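Below is how a single chain appears once it has passed through the pipeline. First comes the sequence as given, then the structure the pipeline wrote out for it. We keep one example in the README because the format questions we get most often are answered faster by looking than by reading.
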Amino acid sequence: MRFTKIVATLGPATCSTENIERLAKAGVNVCRLNFSHGDYAVHGQTIENIKSVNKKGFSLGIMLDTKGPEVRTGDVKQPIKISAGEKVVFAFKPGLKQKMKVITVDYPKFSDDVRHARCILIDNGAIEFSVLKIEKNGSVIAKALEEGTIGSRRHVNLPGAHISLPSFTEKDWSDIRFGIERGVDFFATSFVRTGKDIKMLKVFLHKHKSEGEIIAKIETPQAVDNIDDIIDASDGIMVARGDLGAEVPFEQVPAIQEMIVAKCREKSKPVIVATHMLESMILSPMPTRAEVTDIAFAAKLQTDSTMLSGETTTGLYPFKAVAAMDRILRVSERVELRYREKQFLSFQQSLESDLPRREQALAASVLATKLRADAIISISKHGNTARAISHCRPLVPIHAFVEEDSMMRKLMLVWGIVPHSIDFSDEPEVTLNRALALFLKQPGVKRGDRIVIVSDIRTNDVPVMTIQIRTIS
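Resulting structure:
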């Protein structure tokens, strides 16, 4: 089994029902829809396509990724060619008459915020500009440090500046309502700065009776500074290394990634490592060795999920990219098994076990590791016990039996969990038998397999938390 999950962004190359099914068979667990691109007709059809694939026995989660408060360049008829050392003008108002080339931006307070920026970056650093002068009319004179071209609607970063745009735009609220109506499982929020941003969205989701989970994207220095508050407020974290690497010095990104994954592990929150994981496979059928090492490092950190973006939206080899990520994760996990087995029992010393569920999860994980069990079976309506077991990172698959299909899809994001949905009975033993009957039908399950079962039994009409050890006969 592969423990680390795969999130794949859908786009023109992969949004058909046939291609989504191919992605699922290749190992994708969650489908991401990037609302920075596309319209409601396209996204609505894609969601329907995912749901139709799920009816065939898959459990793909659906993630809506908001555009967020971005700064972008204006529309141009032809890409603007820029030479290294050339001086240009950045301006909010179009039609500015200048001897230099004018690059319009869609942010009225651009000149105010650029005062605090180290530089201006286009397309996550494809072209860097140093700021020379800010004019009284609000235009900004800057010098290009590299040559390149600037097309329409290119992303602009101002490293070091605190952008004063609101956390959610009107488009974001409209997109979120669209996702609520269609029952998406996750809402990934762009350019989060504090836990208050997450709490604001939680109130909105609760008001509209949505059970969708909130994934906070870490893309700004403010978010890194407030990471503990954001983790506490959210349901999960995405380390969005593209914009993050443009907003902070790029050499700091690996350390920030490792710190965030560790904090999420401590607090039992799923974490996704995203952006540029197999970037070369947009155009090449083979990954670079640096990309292979990057994914292996994410697996070594025991991140819950790794994510593909352009590789599966417009790339030439989307299915090869998923297959490559799957292979790298599997091999990397196997290499780590011996080291992790020695490390595992010492992990229990650092685990906060103040809750009975944590105690139960830790005990089941230790038992499964010491006995070299083939699987852990968790029976819990809302999947909380399975999440607690996943937090312990046992060395065996966790088969989680929950009541709702929506909860099953949400568990597709979490490390090591194989989710199933069953009907729960008032009698725990009846529920357990239903779970075991479904488990016995899983590929690879055979006579003689030893399993650890975490469930409730009824004693004197009172449910009691139990851990059982059984051998399949």
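The domain at 351-471 is CATH 3.40.1380.20 (Pyruvate Kinase; Chain: A, domain 1).

See the next section for the split statistics.
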